[in-house]
Fold each of these.
Amino acid sequence: MVASADARCRYAVSRRASRVAAATALVGPICLALLALAGCTGSIAHLHPFDGMRSVHCGATDDTEAVELTYLGSGGFLMTWNHHAILTAPFYSNPGLLQVAFGLPISPNTERIDAHLPPVDDVEAILVGHTHYDHLMDTVYIAETHAPRAVLYGNETMAHILAAREHLRGRVVAMDDAAGDWWQPGRWVYVADRSIRFMALRSEHAPHFLGIKMFGGSVDQNQDSLPRTAYGWKEGQTFAFLIDFLGTDGAVRLRLHYQDAASNPPAGFPPPSENASADPVDVAILCVASFGEVDDYPEAIVQQLQPQTVILGHWESFFRSPDLPTQAVPLTDTKQFALRLTHVLPDGARWYTPRPRAALRICPR
């Protein structure tokens, strides 16, 4: 849709939303319902999504060691390195926007997950950036059914919600106390026979639209059952993750920075001690959704990390079945995002937008 139409959509939502106080419980459902009726979205053509496999910084032969990143939709990536695998929380159920907005019951679409999820039985860790339904709801079923070896790493809200699941007891780790940020380093967690390590970084979640952030807050007590509506899947502390893929000597072979929510700077930035080290960030996974609701995104994070490869995630609408043609997240100016990202890229760097199931094979520099 052209920019003028997108502006009309925002104006229509703004006029109606202004009639209701932002603090009332009805603001979220009303605004989201109006958004659904408006149906405004940018063209995915501006993001140049691709299918299949792309190789980055790899030689002509296939025997070079590489990190393989397969996009699973929403914030989900399957990351494999030297016969080990970790996962960031994927999402396939995609309940409709009106169903979400009006607090109707939602639950994992297990048939859809089974059909679309690649084999993940060897996954050893699942990193959950925050606990909204589009990041944690499907992950519960995946961890119980498809990834029985995986430990889930996320926030305290996740730990309290997942206390309801007997099969996940002993497999859930809250990272709030171990997380770092721009001012101080966090604690490294080693997994996959010490061939992969990660550090949680305190970040934040952008408002969804017009400065309104949905499903905020935290869950502070252990639950007896999983949430029945989207409003029960509260955000908790949002994390970014710094992920290192290590050689047999323990040296960093490739460093990746992952975000599943756009943020204001410096939220989500690695601590200066890591930025100043001999291990620069090679790959940055950025979040397209709601980028216009925060300041200087993606410019600030790209300027800070200086990655040679940027990968876009959370760019497609998660209100549509993955069996339907892909559309961009509603109210996303995809052209503006692409222009701003291209303008700020370091010399020689490139950005990529994988479609769900597409993959990148990235060789260490």
Amino acid sequence: MMIDHKEIFTKSNLLSLFRLFLSIPLWFLLDNLHLESTRYITAFVCLVAIGTDFLDGYLARRLNEVTEVGKIIDPLADKVAVGIVALKLYLVGEMPSYYFFIIIGRDTLIFLGGILLSYKIRKVIPSNTLGKITVTILGVVILMIILKVNRDSILFLSFYTISILMIFASLIAYIIRTVEFLKQKNYESI
């Protein structure tokens, strides 16, 4: 896969890179969740990250900037941002270990599967809608954890349960999609 340098510095890719780099301040902000003001600042930074996730895809399609680089950077930024926040929330005791491990397990499997699939078919497969919805729901759960929403409330329990179901559904859908791509004889339609 040859990468044209013009493909790197598109508006949508820069937004994805910005989201990727937001992981750094988030890591440090999450050290101070005992301060209410830090919780609100952290939630705001998370909302900015979620906003860039929607905006980069919109701009890529709208400005005809869908690139092979963007197909890599966008999901990578999602996985790194969610992974960093989940890891820190786990380390500071705000996220249960099983929830952390299913998030990281799903993202690791999808990431490694994506690398192998890209190597095999010589193309990068873009994110799918189910994966984007899953990341958004995870983002909502993470925001609720950061903002100390009552974990026994129906709102929290609903999003939490849905997020777990979506994690497994999106992983299964990704596996099915990968198998279908590998069965195709002609990869040009991807």
